Amino acid sequence: MLSKAFWLLGCSIRQWWYRNCQDTIMWNWPNRRFKFKMSKKYGPIFTVYLGAQRLVVLCGYDTVKDALINHAEEFAGRPYTAMGSKVSDKHGILFSTGENWRVMRRFTLSTLRHYGTGRKDIENKITEECDCLLQTVRSYGGKPFNNQTIINSAVANIIVCILRGHRFEYDDPTILKLMNLVNDTVKIMESKMVRLYNSYPSLVGWLPGSHRKVTKYHIEIHNFVRETFTGKQRELDVNNQRNLIDAFLANQQEDKPESTSYFNDKNLGKLVTNLFAAGMETISSTLRWGLLLMMKYPEIQKKVQNEIENVIGSAQPQVENRKEMPYTDAVIHEIQRFGDVVPGSLPHATTTDITFRGYNLPKGTTVIPFLHSALRDKAYFEKPKEFYPGHFLDSEGKFKKNEAFIPFSLGKRSCAGENLAKIEMFLFFTTLLQNFTFKPPSGAKLDLSPAVGIIKSPLPYEICAIPRR
Q: What is Dmax (Cα atoms) for the chain?
């Protein structure tokens, strides 16, 4: 009876918060328009409070670049949050800080170069995965289907290949379970109860709500990763390292101080979870935005297909084709800019007291580099609110870079898998458009509104893939 009374009390308190705090900064904060309104009123640097939590927001490309490039070390920390502490425990790469983060990032960058972007093998693996994806898409015979699971699986298999050396079938319960756990966690991490928990952990921690599910899902993911990926010590051959996990375990066995301090099982589990979640969700969401936008703008889809025919023909797309395909390259960049899958970036923290553009920021200040404001910066993009590939084309139709294009962030905390993501995007996108024309089901209305979550993915939609050959 007592436990039921506490549960009812918790529900009542939560309902009171929803009724009375619905219009406060805490609830409006994830809304990108709300942040823009704040920046217009208070300038490119302003402070907000989410309960007791103070956040300093950086808006506009120039401000974000100044902080993350010109003061890279000072803005390279991660803030403490109650939920972040639960899911990371200061291990891995995404939420760790200090020397642990430096060692894990150094290892991740070098290993991804070795087993990923630095070898032709990974391009061949992506090409093989493209073929598997094509077969699955063809199996629908041009009828409507939801592409979320198969695209998630295809992208996930590239990360899996780097981690353990082989892929899963798209209907394998192992990969389906892991993807569902990651997807659910991504959605919940932006929920109101999680934000409330981060602001008032001692008050909210015992209440029922989605914040409790995050902990539950995190434990399931960690156990799953340990059983599926990291339980390989008996298989390790130090002289024949085949993947990222082998490389980590080999470092673990070296007679160096950092081998025991940083190359431990906790860091391995968190690192694998970080790479899998970040690599799968961001790239698959961007690809799904791409196909949705191709249905929305069929004339752009046709121009991409024409360029594919002129440059590649019926051959298998290769990364080296990209330099001969300026329009396709511009469209892919514009998909990333418009899709804007990580609009707020993960929060940073100052590593020391710093005076930045006239503002005194004490050590440990939470800082949000608002990437969305850079990708929509009117000073750098002619039509920031529209899907317009011309943002990346010059007057002669050649590809041009735009320095405000920072979907992977900047500086020391930029995405470690950026180069791999670029390869995946080009090969998956060109292969799909080479083989299919994508159309909406008859009578369907295409909604470009994003789903709720820390990753800005498109809402679920159905698509028709009409074979071109």
A: 75
